[in-house]
Amino acid sequence: MKQVLCEQVGFSCDYVIDGETDEDVMRKAIEHIWEYHAIKPEEMTSDMKAKIKEKIQTL
Ligand SMILES: [Zn+2]
């Protein structure tokens, strides 16, 4: 299983995003950030996406 903590991406939020694959975590992270932090997927910078990818851990 893979996971990333929302706070590692830079939000003060204790949400844990998990999934089977990096792509899965990335997709859910984008959804979460949209729903909870009001950043639309198309407004997300490539820096932010790179940060999410970098912080994904394998459990
Ligand atoms: Zn969050």
Structural write-up:
The chain has 59 residues and is α+β, with helices and mostly antiparallel strands. It has one domain. Helix content is 51%, strand content 17%. It has 3 helices and 3 strands. The chain has helices at 6-9, 22-37, 46-55, and strands at 2-5, 16-19, 57-58. Strands 2-1-3 form a 3-stranded antiparallel β-sheet. The longest helix is centred in the middle third of the chain and has 16 residues, at 22-37. The radius of gyration is 10 Å and the shape is globular. The model has no long low-confidence stretch (mean pLDDT 96). The site of zinc ion has 7 residues, from helix 2.
Terminal residue distance: 5 Å
Q: Specify Rg, calculated over alpha carbons.
A: 10 Å
Rounded mean pLDDT score:
96
SSE sequence, one letter per element: EHEHHE
- Major sheet characteristics: 3 strands, antiparallel
What are the distinct ligands in this entry?
A: zinc ion
Shape descriptor: globular
Instruction: Please state how the strands of the largest beta sheet are arranged side by side.
Output: 2-1-3
Number of domains: 1
Please provide the count of β strands.
Answer: 3
Strand content: 15-25%
The portion of residues assigned to helices is: 40-55%
Which regions have little confidence, pLDDT < 50, spanning 5+ residues?
A: none
Q: Helix- and strand-based class?
A: alpha+beta
Q: How large is the count of helical segments?
A: 3
